[in-house]
Amino acid sequence: MPYDLKEIAAISGMPGLYRLVRPTRAGVIIEALNDKGSRSVAAAQNKVSLLQEISIYTQDYDQTVPLTEVFDRIHQQHGADLGLSNKSNDQELVSFMEGIIPDYDRERVYLSDIKKLVQWYNIVSQRLEYQAPATEDETTAQDATEQDATEQKAPPTPVAADTAPKKKTTKKMAEPAAGEAMSTAGIIAAPEADTAPGNPEAAVAKPAKKAAPKKKAE
Question: Pfam families recorded for this chain (predicted)?
């Protein structure tokens, strides 16, 4: 995002903007976004409003513009030096707002809101680094680079030549191709023994008895 507003907040009863450092039992430790950068504790009863969760009303009742996008529009048109302050005259502030969000809701967005927006942008643009969003070509090039790096494979390990005499091999049944499902899950069941009880074909043939020699007639 152009300006990272995840940890930047406005706190009720306290002027300016603050960076949230870490929570405590009594509230949250904050760092002022000013030249001093002093730290203090905001009590739990103070209302903390994260800038990332704030939006500007538009004439479409269900449509709002996130403050992150509003700051990006301001930077695209005016850069880091806005040339306005919250003490500028009303006409300049209204003209500025119309240039940023032409369809902003005139009934729900007050002049005091525009002054607050200008004040916040001046603080953020001076204290935070603007990160230009990646263009479509840069995003495509980055994806292609990552894909090429993934597809690169390690060179094959050399295998020593087998100098031993080859043994005569017997022909085996064809194995399933890689990735091919095997109905036996890789295990081929052994055939059942022919001597299984109850199998009419399981009887083992007994050798025929020799015929008794015939007696000679007297």
Answer: DUF5606 (PF18347), DUF6852 (PF21186)
Tokens of 187: 């295990």
Q: How many domains does the chain have?
A: 2
Q: Report which of residues 37 and 196 the model is more confident about.
A: 37
Q: Is residue 86 very low, low, confident or very high in pLDDT (cuts 50, 70, 90)?
A: very high
* Residues in Cβ contact with 99 at an 8 Å cutoff, skipping those fewer than 6 apart: 77
> In which domain, by residue range, is 108 found?
55-127
Burial of 66 (0-12, 13-18, 19+ CB in 10 A): middle
Count of all residues that appear for the chain in the document: 218
Instruction: Give the pairing type, strands 27-32 and 55-57.
Output: unpaired
Cα gap 184→179, rounded to integer Å: 14
Mean pLDDT of 33-46: 90
Q: Do residues 45 and 59 both lie within one domain?
A: no
pTM assigned to the model: 0.61
In a shared domain, residues 41 and 91: no
Q: Which residues, 6 or more positions from 90, have their beta carbon under 8 angstroms from its beta carbon?
A: 111
Q: Cβ(109)–Cβ(19) under 8 Å?
A: no
